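User: tokens in, sequence out, please.
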């Protein structure tokens, strides 16, 4: 009986160890980080649209804006946290995303918007278990978006 119990525990442990640590196919965590060297200040915002698979390309199928309002960050922590993380669950399996990232670098008076597309049949990083990370900004003042 001890041998059966020992072998069962070993097999259970082996099975748990072999399970891949992939992110949920429907639940995603979105993080926006602002970083700058003092006394510089940069603020950022991002809107992410999660997409289902489509035979015609990126975001041609199901689409879900996550969250429903943009995510904000502020390197000084004055108008928004330095880092903001939100979670959302799409009503379908997420295969890709599009994102619009905006930033304002107050010291350099630079304002910019970047549009990112990922997943589906276009070139780029897919979201299948590994997530997506991109950084934009000016010089050492950056805004980073992570979707996992």
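Assistant: Sequence out:
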């Amino acid at each position: 009986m001890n041998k059966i119990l020992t072998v069962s525990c070993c097999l259970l442990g082996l099975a748990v160890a072999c399970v891949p640590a992939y992110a949920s196919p429907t639940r995603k965590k979105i993080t926006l980080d602002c970083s700058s060297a003092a006394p510089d200040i940069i603020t950022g915002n991002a809107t992410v649209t999660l997409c289902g698979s489509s035979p015609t390309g990126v975001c041609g199928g199901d689409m879900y804006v996550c969250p429903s309002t943009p995510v904000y960050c502020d390197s000084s922590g004055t108008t928004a946290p330095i880092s903001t993380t939100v979670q959302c669950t799409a009503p379908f399996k997420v295969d890709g995303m599009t994102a619009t990232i905006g930033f304002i670098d107050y010291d350099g008076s630079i304002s910019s918007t970047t549009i990112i597309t990922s997943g589906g049949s276009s070139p780029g990083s897919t979201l299948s278990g590994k997530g997506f990370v991109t950084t934009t900004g000016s010089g050492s003042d950056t805004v980073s978006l992570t979707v996992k």
